[in-house]
Amino acid sequence: MVFLLTALKMFYVLDPNLKPIPKPTPEDSDTIKATRSKREEDELVCRGYILNSLSDRLYDLYRNMKTPKEIWTALEHKYMNEKKGTDKFLALKYFEFSITDDKPIMDQVHELQILVSKLSELEIKVPDSLQVGAILSKLHPSWNGYRKKVLHSTDTFTIEEFQTHIQIEAKNRARDALFLGGSNVNYIGSSSESKANLVEQKINELIAMVTDMQIGMITEVHMATTNKSSDWWLDSGATIHVCNNKKQFKTYEECKKPENILMEIMFLPK
Question: Which residue range or ranges hold the Retrovirus-related Pol polyprotein from transposon TNT 1-94-like beta-barrel domain (predicted)?
Answer without folding.
Answer: 232-263
